[in-house]
Amino acid sequence: MAEEKLLVLKNIRDPGYAGDLAAYRKTGGYTALKKVLQAMKPEEVVEAVKASGLRGRGGAGFSCGMKWGFMPPPGDKPHYLVCNADESEPGTFKDHLLMVGDPHMFVEGMIIGCFAMHSRHSYIYIRGESMYAIRRVQAAIDELYRNHLLGKNILGSGYDLDLTVHPGAGAYICGEETAMLDSLEGKRGLPRFKPPFPAQSGFDACPTTVNNVETLANVPFIINEGTEAFAALGTPNNTGTQAVCISGHLERPGVYEVEMGHNLESLIYEYAGGIRGGKLLKAVVPGGASADVLRADEIDIPYDFDSLTNAGTMRGSAAVMVFDEDTDMVEVAERTIRFFNHESCGQCTPCREGTFWIKNMIRQFLDDAGDEALMQRVDRAAGNIIGTTICAFGDAVGGPMQAFVRKFPEEFRKHFAS
Ligand SMILES: Cc1cc2nc3c(=O)[nH]c(=O)nc-3n(C[C@H](O)[C@H](O)[C@H](O)COP(=O)(O)O)c2cc1C
Ligand code: SF4
Predict the structure, then answer these.
(1) 173 lines ligand 1 (CB under 6 A)
(2) Ligand 2 pocket, 385 CB below 6 A?
């Protein structure tokens, strides 16, 4: 197998690594926190993360340092950092691995983030079904309290911080940051209109930043090794490494860590071992179910935020789903829309109704009752959702549905009424 570029999976790749506080400390764990608390001002931490070029690994790829910089100076309201560990995008399982295999790495990044944004109490929102991850992260937090790395006067610095693990109840939409904040407040998780953005009015109407698990796991490296060392990895606007989840018809599905900009074809053939049973590749969904599908002849591209956007799709949650020559792409489209229809929160008519009607139309193809006009109707209904909804879920349904019909018309034609 080709060699990985290990940063967030560095410890996990060691087969003897226990993932507890003692093991993490042996690898240099919590030296970054010590450095920050002893020698850095909050704004210097924000500047370092900005300069590293770190972009959020949860989906949108927004600059982490810029987001931290949007938080207001300390005032009369508490500040919050909420770690998004919901990981509900189909095909995505990297955050689960990070939480179970090396929980202290992202927690250290989170404590540093809390210090940088003047937070005294913050939350880790973990998908409720991920019971093992919840237990591992809670055990890590308990160890930190016992060792004066959380609670009052951390490492004698005078800085106080509490972290609370909050299990979600298993709704995909609660991965969307504002729905997650509603859920955290004890309400039904519904995306909010933006503005106001969470940095102005987030959890309990207080300044809040939401960050993905992997985003935070990069922070200790940036502090320990320096912004230049991080920025030297990847490409100028897509710095660092990424943990990519590759699943589907492959010889070696799994999570592989490579530099940003690594070739997508190489990820599939050199890392994941190529298509199972020597079959041919038909399609790749490169960034979770919300990303537009690519045809087999479109995968010789760098795998990073900008390159995938330029290719008309997105890197999203770094979930690469691979389909071989025997796959019926209409079935893939049906499963995808069934998921989105089930998970739509129902606030916006185009999303609630559109996902329902597209699901019904695609089912007509599976009943071999399709025709050219129905294909166009699927395309049009999907287009009517894009850009017309409260949250990005709408675009995440509309784009992929159009892509299935536009890139694989021959697959839909196989299901025309005879
Ligand atoms: C429908 C939907 C689901 C999402 N699910 C997740 C998720 O499971 N995990 C995640 O980190 N981000 C998810 N996001 C993105 C978050 O809204 C947010 O942008 C992200 O957590 C910010 O963290 P980052 O800047 O570190 O990437 C989702 C977004 C949408 C629109
Ligand atoms: S786009 Fe869909 S999921 Fe998002 S707020 Fe509207 S109805 Fe809810």
Answers:
(1) yes
(2) no
Tell which one of 122, 130, 177, 395 to mutate to probe ligand 1, the residue whose CB is within 8 A of the most ligand atoms. Answer: 177
Which residue is associated with the tokens 């919050």?
80
> Could you give the 3-state DSSP secondary structure of residue 162?
strand
CB 89 near ligand 1, within 6 Å: yes
Q: How far apart are CA 110 and CA 213, in angstroms?
A: 9
Does the beta carbon of 144 lie inside 6 Å of ligand 2?
Answer: no
Q: What is the pLDDT along the chain (418 residues), one digit of tens a residue?
A: 789 999 999 999 999 999 999 999 999 999 999 999 999 999 999 999 999 999 999 999 999 999 999 999 999 999 999 999 999 999 999 999 999 999 999 999 999 999 999 999 999 999 999 999 999 999 999 999 999 999 999 999 999 999 999 999 889 999 999 999 999 999 999 999 999 999 999 999 999 999 999 999 999 999 999 999 999 999 999 999 999 999 999 999 999 999 999 999 999 999 999 999 999 999 999 999 999 999 999 999 999 999 999 999 999 999 999 999 999 999 999 999 999 999 999 999 999 999 999 999 999 999 999 999 999 999 999 999 999 999 999 999 999 999 999 999 999 999 999 8
Site of tokens 């019909």: 405
Looking at all shown ligands, the one closest to residue 354's CA atom is: 2
**Domain boundaries, given as residue ranges, for the chain:** 21-231, 236-324, 329-413
Q: Please provide residue 387's backbone torsions phi and psi, each rounded to the nearest 5 degrees.
A: 75, 10
**Is 344 a pocket residue for ligand 2 (Cβ < 6 Å)?**
yes
CA of 167 to the centre of ligand 2 (A): 22
**Assigned fold of 329-413:** de novo design (two linked rop proteins) (1.20.1440)
Which ligand has an atom closest to residue 109 CA? 1
The residue whose CB lies within 8 Å of the most ligand 1 atoms, and thus the one to mutate among 57, 63, 82, 89, is 89
Place of tokens 């920025």: 231
Q: What is the pTM of this model?
A: 0.97
Q: Which residues of 282-297 are buried (b: 16+ CB within 10 A; e: fewer)?
A: bbbbbbbbbbbbbebe
CATH number assigned to the domain covering 21-231: 3.40.50.11540
Residues 375 and 358: their CA atoms lie apart, in Å, by 10
Alpha carbon of 24 to ligand 1 centroid (Å): 27
Domain 236-324, second-level architecture: Roll (3.10)
For β-strands 254-259 and 241-248, DSSP reports them as antiparallel
**How far, in Å, is the centroid of ligand 2 from the Cα of 346?**
6
